[in-house]
């Protein structure tokens, strides 16, 4: 059997500045890269034309072609990770497995199980930081605890970043320590029960002019003024370290968005219970309305609130929603309709190309007032004033809600003033204020 080191690709689908991969290639044994189409994740997806699955499959295909030029390739599997490693240990003499860390609860339990199995078989399991700039316990307060509020966290983050910018690794394709294999075929979508999606994936190139103007333009949903790089950060087709370096040079507001990403990843890593529970435990007392009809209208973009409906239709059609509008639609669901933030979070998880558990959870709990944000529970976005501020000419609304202003457009499903007071009273009573 061949002596190899395994590199396990996950949320790091690139050769440039890939931390664990660069370390694996420095070892003596040649590196066999693998990718597992994980059935624990894929079998739960209802939409079999999920654009994210197609994006991953296509990316692996392109990477495999690049490795074939070096006489190597990516070995793909469709199954459960533990079973995959049992197969690999029966076909290869493995020195060690290298991979980059993932902080989601499923990922951490999966990695523990794989590590245990490998250790029983005398195989090393080495993990590295790659998905974030600073992870779980790298940015702590003066008392040594993790930050629960973003502003002091961001100050500490920037101070650390200025003093010690993270190291950026080179292009692993320049290394020749790859395990030589015959041509390896990547699993097709069809073989896994999936099919192609009509949804387009945004380009991964950073538009530097856009980033320079980001501060002034980012809040206006009718403009093409945000980077749309979320899916590339989610699956690691671009490096967060390279992006942060550019952001630090070009625009502090854009850099701040990347710091939010680190912040929410850190919050989830330290508090895995927030997947199912409010970050502020007392907020689990809120008696959410089980309004399935209201939720359906929200999902379909038929609430009678044009900015909300435009956002939901943009999401349903493109897998993307402008960030300002994400806040508006999330506030509307949790405050106007008093529907549990977990319902909205789960819907976003199904639809968003850039779905990331930590950021999605953080954003929804922020909107619901149940999360880390210091703002009191009585913040309720007014869709009309938000429209006046950020879509005054109704360009965004008219693009996604063409029947707005005609008899075909529905009346609001709830009156704003009534809904706002109901939300505040409900929260106040539940929290014993």
From TrEMBL:
GO terms for biological process: nucleobase-containing compound metabolic process; response to light stimulus; response to stress. Signal peptide: none annotated. One of its GO terms (molecular function) is FAD binding. Keywords: Chromophore, FAD, Flavoprotein, Lyase. It comes from the Bacteria. It holds the Pfam family DNA_photolyase. FAD binds at residues 214, 254, 257-264, 354-356. Residues 3-133 form the Photolyase/cryptochrome alpha/beta domain. Transmembrane segments: none annotated. Binds 1 FAD per subunit. SUPFAM superfamilies: Cryptochrome/photolyase FAD-binding domain (SSF48173), Cryptochrome/photolyase, N-terminal domain (SSF52425). This is Deoxyribodipyrimidine photolyase.
